[in-house]
Design goal:
The chain is α/β, with parallel strands linked by helices. The protein is built from ten helices and nine strands. It binds S-adenosylmethionine.
Length: 278
């Protein structure tokens, strides 16, 4: 790797490190601001199975042989892999959250597709997981500061293709006005999908990129759940819920198709590259 290439990986790490929450705010937080609620990703996976195929689904399907295996890393409820259940013979989900793995197995069982769940952090558990025809990894990369071993393990587990999806901008960028309002704190604006492409390119991966607009939103069926999630993200106690609710409504949070969402449809990027597994 030359200096410019190492620079892209370093820039990725530095930008993600910039999201660290100041110690005094974190110390006062009654609950972890970083946890993902299982309910959010269960309903997202349910919707993903009944909506038209996305560019990420189509890219994965293009490389998936009939009856092939899909490995879903950071699977959550399975929104990345369950849409492939029709042609896949087997889905394998890896997630560091036991609740997410259970939710995935439940959804796969309902669809009648053979499935396995592995609880653990990638790439630490990669040695316990066999290769797959296609590896999918949606909305996880912004959680991974140490991108090189993570991406190498994805590549090494794919016989044909890795398909990674991420939002064009870091998913917490939209919370910046609320951080300013409640903590008088400015938040970073990056990294974005372009930084991911540069960092993956620095690893020698030949990455194809498609940018598109996702009609499905990350959102909650229940407004109170959205308020509680946002309040936890902001490191605030539950007694501040009414203020958080007011702030969310003031900044345009509204319902679309029964789901509470903030902001506009999401700009999403599909990245894909060849795998190297035998
Ligand atoms: C934003 S959710 C995305 C879930 C799903 N892929 C989707 O698109 O709906 C991120 C998921 O990745 C998991 N996760 C984050 N970092 C991980 C890691 N290093 N290893 C395994 N799971 C991870 C989290 O527990 C969470 O379930």
């Amino acid at each position: 790797m030359d200096g410019q290439a190492t620079g892209a990986l370093e820039r990725w790490r530095e930008q993600l490190d910039g999201w660290a929450i100041p110690e005094e705010i974190l110390a006062a937080a009654p609950e972890s601001p970083w946890e993902f609620p299982v309910g959010l990703f269960r309903s997202r996976a349910r919707r993903a199975g009944s909506q038209p195929a996305t560019p990420s689904n189509l890219e994965a399907a293009r490389f998936l042989p009939e009856g092939g295996t899909v490995l879903d890393v950071g699977a959550g409820g399975g929104a990345a892999s369950l849409p492939l259940a029709g042609s896949a013979g087997r889905l394998v989900a890896v997630d560091e959250s036991a609740g997410m793995v259970a939710s995935f197995l439940d959804a796969a069982g309902q669809r009648g597709v053979a499935a396995e769940g592995v609880e653990g952090s990638w790439p630490e558990v990669a040695g316990r997981v066999g290769p797959a025809d296609v590896v999918v990894c949606h909305h996880v990369l912004y959680n991974v500061a140490d991108l090189a071993p993570f991406a190498r393990a994805l590549t090494g587990h794919a016989r044909r293709r890795v398909v990674a999806e991420l939002t064009e901008r870091h998913p917490l960028v939209g919370l910046a006005p609320l951080w300013r309002r409640f903590h008088d704190l400015d938040r970073p604006t990056g990294p974005g999908a372009g930084d991911a492409v540069a960092a993956l390119g620095a690893l020698g991966l030949e990455v194809d990129r498609q940018d598109w607009e996702h009609q499905d939103r990350f959102g909650f069926d229940d407004f109170d759940e959205l308020v509680a999630f946002t309040r936890r993200r902001l490191c605030l106690p539950a007694r501040r819920d009414p203020e958080v609710a007011q702030a969310l409504l003031e900044q345009g949070t509204h319902q679309v198709d029964g789901i509470w969402v903030s902001g506009q449809p999401r700009r999403v990027t599909t990245l894909s590259w060849p795998g190297t597994a035998a």
